[in-house]
Specification:
237 residues, 2 domains, four-stranded antiparallel β-sheet, 7 strands, 20% strand
């Protein structure tokens, strides 16, 4: 059987590179980051440390991200491609698993069984540790993505995780005529339910009453900003 995509063993698990899978599926249109964000990082049916683990690589002299995918998850992604190549890759993974089961030997001695159990326990421990480490970030995104409440504008860039900082994001939104020069959203975008401007009153050091305005963003607004940034990336390709 010809090797369609390289399968490696990491921490006792058979894995494949997300970038190699993306290329093998003939999805190499220069939009790997967008594909990975939608299908891997924020896929509601996937779990960090079980279905995938992210890691950094150097590509063309730049630091970027790749993911180690479990074979089961890679099969699901292949099916989602809904292409002839996707079905071929999926069947390839199935055949690889069949061959693996054929060569797997059940321990015939107590020492062999104990060694296997030890390796499996180590794998579970490593995966559990990774889940604990990743949980705060995953929980934060889930809370924002599923909540009907709003978040502060300064947190939006972190939620988007698209490689654009707070100041650059404000600059982009001003250039798109979404925010005014004071970083306050124009009324029509507030009326569409993307933003809300909160008036905050406070007393300064001289005892004078002051008013401050803070912009918060609803999930609908986060999605709106994401689409704007994706459109900008597409136009720049």
């Amino acid at each position: 059987m010809n090797e369609l995509i390289r399968i490696e063993e990491k921490e006792g698990k058979k894995t494949v590179s997300a970038r190699e899978l993306y290329k093998a599926l003939d999805l190499a249109d220069g939009q790997f980051s967008r594909w990975a964000e939608k299908n891997i990082k924020y896929n509601q049916f996937s779990m960090v440390g079980v279905d995938f683990v992210g890691f950094d690589i150097m590509l063309s002299g730049n630091k970027t991200q790749d993911f180690s995918l479990s074979i089961d998850f890679a099969k699901r992604l292949s099916m989602l491609a809904r292409t002839e190549k996707g079905e071929i890759i999926r069947n390839y993974f199935i055949e690889c698993e069949k061959k693996l089961k054929q060569v797997f030997q059940i321990p015939q001695t107590l020492s062999g069984a104990l060694l296997l159990a030890s390796k499996q326990a180590k794998t579970i421990e490593d995966q559990t540790t990774l889940l604990i480490e990743q949980k705060p970030k995953v929980d934060f995104f889930d809370q924002v993505a599923q909540s009907k409440t709003a978040i502060e504008m300064r947190k939006v860039s972190a939620v988007l995780d698209m490689g654009i900082g707070r100041n650059k994001l404000f600059e982009f939104l001003r250039s798109e005529k979404i925010l005014d020069n004071q970083n306050i959203p124009y009324r029509k975008f507030q009326d569409q339910g993307y933003f809300r401007v909160i008036e905050q009153k406070y007393t300064d050091g001289n005892g004078e009453l002051k008013v401050n305005f803070k912009t918060v963003v609803y999930q609908k607004g986060v999605n709106f900003i994401r689409k704007k940034l994706e459109t900008m990336e597409t136009n720049n390709v």
